[in-house]
Design a protein that fits this description.
Layout lengths: L3 H11 L5 E5 L2 E7 L2 H10 L14 E9 L11 E9 L2 E7 L5 E5 L8 E4 L4 E6 L2 H22 L3 E9 L5 E6 L5 H9 L4 E4 L2 E7 L2 E6 L4 E3 L1 H7 L2 H5 L31 E3 L1 H8 L6 E2 L3 E7 L6 E5 L1 H8 L24 H14 L2 E6 L1 H4 L4 H9 L9
Parallel strand pairs: 2-3, 3-8, 10-17, 17-19
Antiparallel strand pairs: 1-2, 4-5, 5-6, 6-7, 7-8, 9-10, 9-11, 9-12, 12-13, 13-16, 14-15, 18-19
Helix pairs in contact: 2-3, 8-9
Length: about 400
């Protein structure tokens, strides 16, 4: 018995809302759901302004049916298990092969966000979950994975990093350890006429027109220090985020209760793209030119210091933040073959990147220095020139 067709057919019969198109870099995803909340959630998470930098054509087009289903497996045989376990962003699935050749991924999360993903061609998906409050989050995760794979398929380098476009149009790419100020720096650079590109995981993608910095669509996470420095504490106290936990909100819901690990740290607020735009005046765009690369390093320093790195030192400094392959992600979702990414081509691309783009190390105390002065610090890097650096 087919698994995909009955669910997609029932969803199509019951859906009265128009499809929502989510477009991010090289992916155009048509989302169909009967739940207005899923529309609002996705629209808030993926709100962008048009990029200045173009993405390679053609776009990867996919369809996603988001379906409230009390028990997706009730009365249905998911098919024989393949013996593989797949994962992305910490979510693990058992994989089955359905009667008509569908791939059926059953989440092993049976308590928080149980769900099932079904595809017959890796271009159209059914996402079925028994809890309405989970649908927006799960749909967003699926969009994120499709964006990730499209970028990686192009040879993009995925980093634990952030990126922004400054008001003058120049792009900045940032890596560093947790707490080094990546997210806050991206937000500061995106304010006052700039744009945020990515705040957690960001790609550097080689294209025929040159390198592109591409953000992975995820919530922006800000800690208490960043909230205070950005001046939005009072606004957050009266704000109920579309996506996020808001521990700074007064009254009910101020402190997440009983949240199991792994989960977001309770001292951080998670904000959607629309919320970052509305609360911080920093719109998002999916892609920019990575004119300057910055490695942030925490230091007990009274003043920030900037050093330009030669190509060999730059590659060494960037490598710890390069995710190839990324252990939190299934390697491939747009094809049946889940073979892992190969690290060798990625490292070769990294060597080419640092010969073509200037890389700087910024040593600072983010608690003291990560504020509007970030613009001046990056301007000082620009003043050294942007010529290619030899090995």
């Amino acid at each position: 018995m087919s698994f995909y067709a009955p669910l997609a057919g029932r969803a199509e019969r019951n859906i009265t809302l128009p499809p929502l198109t989510v477009e991010w870099y090289r992916v155009r995803l048509r989302v169909r759901t009967a739940d207005p909340y899923v529309h609002r959630y996705l629209a808030s998470q993926h709100h962008t302004v048009a990029p200045d930098a173009t993405a390679p054509e053609p776009l990867q087009v996919a369809d996603l049916w988001v379906l409230l289903e009390p028990d997706p497996l009730a009365g249905r045989n998911p098919g024989a298990p393949t013996g593989r376990r797949q994962a992305f962003t910490g979510e693990w699935y058992t994989e089955h092969r359905g009667a008509d050749g569908e791939t059926v991924l059953v989440s092993q999360d049976v308590t928080t966000h149980p769900h099932t993903l079904i595809t017959r061609d890796f271009r159209s998906w059914v996402l079925a979950a028994p809890r309405a409050e989970s649908l927006g989050l799960l749909a967003t995760r699926t969009v994120r994975e499709l964006v990730r794979e499209a970028a990686v398929a192009d040879g993009a380098l995925m980093f634990h990093g952030a990126a922004a476009q400054r008001p003058n149009g120049r792009g900045v790419f940032l890596v560093g350890d947790a707490g080094a100020g990546k997210t806050s720096s991206a937000v500061w650079l995106g304010r006052g006429g700039g744009r945020v590109v990515g705040t957690d995981r960001t790609f550097l993608a080689p294209t025929a027109a040159g390198w592109r910095a591409v953000g992975l669509p995820v919530s922006t996470r800000l800690g208490a220090g960043a909230v205070a420095a950005l001046g939005i504490l009072d606004a957050l106290r009266g704000h109920v985020p579309v996506r996020a936990i808001n521990p700074f909100r007064a009254g009910a819901g101020a402190t997440p209760a009983g949240r199991p690990d792994p989960g977001p740290p309770p001292e951080k607020v998670w904000l959607s793209n629309s919320e970052v735009n509305d609360l911080l005046g920093a719109p998002f765009t999916a892609v920019t030119h990575p004119d300057t690369l910055v490695v942030l390093e925490r230091a007990a320093a009274d003043e920030p210091t900037i050093a330009r790195l030669d190509a060999a030192d730059a590659a060494t400094a960037l490598l710890p933040y390069l995710l190839a392959p990324d252990p939190d992600y299934r390697s491939r979702w747009l094809a049946a073959d889940p073979a892992p990414e190969r690290a060798e081509p990625v490292r070769a691309a990294l060597a080419a990147l640092v010969r073509e783009r200037p890389v700087f190390r910024l040593r600072w105390n983010p608690a003291l220095h990560c504020d509007a002065r970030v613009h001046d610090l990056v301007a000082a890097m620009d003043a050294t020139g942007t010529a290619a650096v030899g090995a």
